[in-house]
């Protein structure tokens, strides 16, 4: 399903994206993600397709706002039955939908007595009661606890795929995007990149996308040389090789991005290209992983999973380390506003 909506208030946006299966729209808070969903649902004045020009009640859309919007004075089955036509066997239909969500035994409960995941399922059953052609989910992870979030989301996504209803979920949580069939990134009122999660996480188009998908190491650089075999970039006291970039030109100001988990620790004797000796400026445990702050010619954030921690994770907090970054893990982003920094498909 192709979606193209334009609106001026409360934020100017011109958004064109494709929804396939479970699609996640990722963006920072304040970018207008919730505003876009309200526009598609007909709750805000906007022009676009599909469903443009139809009043809210005629749009075949299921909409789950943040907090789910359940009526606190109605039982679970009554919430689900609310959008059903009068005269129909509303109780039976509502119970069928709750059973599909695994909540038949909770049908007489009020929202205040349900967990976050249960309330989400009730709200989803109510949305499905409209027999929608499109489901809109606003920050679906916001009311879920970390212990059960993945299990609940996996069940819900599997249910949506079985129903073959396209879903557009908006979030600032990159973890949700990893579970999607397709994702897009919203920045500056437009889509700056879309494709599969694998494509966007592996090859973000620009700095904005890189930060949203978890890059902690992003710094300015200058292209020193470029050829069909690779690009060399440099800054004060350092020089790194990256994969070839057709758009890179010597002297061009660019940004370099490196994932924390793709920085390798190596023996000082190894040396070689893309190796730097840096000082340990801080370290802390993150569960079974170890996060390092390194300083020197470059300042790097490094995440060492359990299997990659040297000497069982014992690192001198005041010592130095030699790090290595494979050229394919050194990402290069064009100058903001350049032709190569425009919205694009995939990686």
Automatic annotation (TrEMBL):
* InterPro entries xrefs: AAA+_ATPase (IPR003593), ABC_SmlMolc_Importer (IPR050093), ABC_transporter-like_ATP-bd (IPR003439), ABC_transporter-like_CS (IPR017871), Mo/tungstate-bd_C_term_dom (IPR008995), P-loop_NTPase (IPR027417)
- Identify one Pfam family in the record: ABC_tran
The yes or no answer to whether the keyword Transport is present is: yes
| Keywords, ordered alphabetically | ATP-binding, Nucleotide-binding, Transport
PROSITE patterns (alphabetical):
ABC_TRANSPORTER_1, ABC_TRANSPORTER_2
Segments forming domain ABC transporter = 3-213
Lineage at the top is: Bacteria, Pseudomonadati, Pseudomonadota, Acidithiobacillia, Acidithiobacillales
Q: List the PANTHER family.
A: SPERMIDINE/PUTRESCINE IMPORT ATP-BINDING PROTEIN POTA (PTHR42781), SPERMIDINE_PUTRESCINE IMPORT ATP-BINDING PROTEIN POTA (PTHR42781:SF4)
* Alphabetized SUPFAM superfamilies for the sequence: MOP-like (SSF50331), P-loop containing nucleoside triphosphate hydrolases (SSF52540)
Species of the source: Acidithiobacillus sulfuriphilus
Gene Ontology molecular function terms on file: ATP binding; ATP hydrolysis activity
Task: Provide the protein name.
Answer: ABC transporter ATP-binding protein
């Amino acid at each position: 399903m192709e979606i193209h909506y334009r609106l001026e208030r409360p934020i100017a946006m011109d958004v064109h994206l494709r929804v396939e299966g479970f699609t996640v729209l990722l963006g920072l808070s304040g970018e207008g993600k919730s505003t876009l969903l309200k526009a598609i649902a007909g709750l805000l004045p906007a022009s676009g397709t599909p469903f443009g020009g139809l009043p809210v009640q005629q749009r075949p859309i299921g909409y789950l706002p943040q907090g789910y919007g359940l009526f606190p004075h109605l039982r679970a089955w009554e919430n689900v039955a609310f959008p059903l036509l009068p005269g129909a066997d509303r109780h039976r239909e509502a119970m069928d939908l709750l059973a599909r969500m695994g909540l038949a035994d909770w049908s007489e409960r009020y929202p205040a007595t349900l967990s976050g995941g249960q309330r989400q399922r009730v709200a989803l059953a109510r949305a499905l009661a409209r027999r929608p052609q499109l489901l809109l989910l606003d920050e679906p992870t916001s009311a879920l606890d970390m212990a059960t979030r993945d299990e609940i989301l996996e069940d819900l996504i599997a249910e949506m795929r079985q129903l073959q209803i396209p879903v557009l979920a908006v979030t600032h949580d990159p973890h949700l995007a990893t579970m999607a069939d397709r994702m897009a990134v919203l920045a500056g009122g437009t889509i700056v990149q879309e494709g599969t999660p694998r494509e966007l996480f592996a090859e973000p188009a620009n700095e904005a996308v890189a930060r949203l998908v978890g890059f902690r190491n992003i710094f300015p650089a200058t292209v020193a040389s470029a050829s069909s075999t690779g690009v060399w970039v440099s800054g004060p006291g350092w020089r790194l090789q990256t994969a070839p970039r057709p758009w890179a030109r010597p002297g061009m100001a660019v940004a370099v991005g490196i994932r924390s988990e793709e920085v390798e620790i190596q023996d000082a004797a190894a040396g070689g290209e893309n190796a730097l000796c840096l000082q340990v400026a801080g370290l802390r445990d993150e569960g079974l992983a170890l996060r390092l702050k390194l300083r020197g010619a470059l300042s790097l954030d490094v995440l060492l999973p359990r299997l990659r921690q040297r000497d069982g994770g014992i690192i001198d907090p005041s010592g130095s380390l030699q790090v290595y970054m494979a050229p394919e893990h050194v990402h290069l982003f064009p100058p903001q506003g350049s032709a190569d920094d425009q919205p694009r498909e995939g990686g």
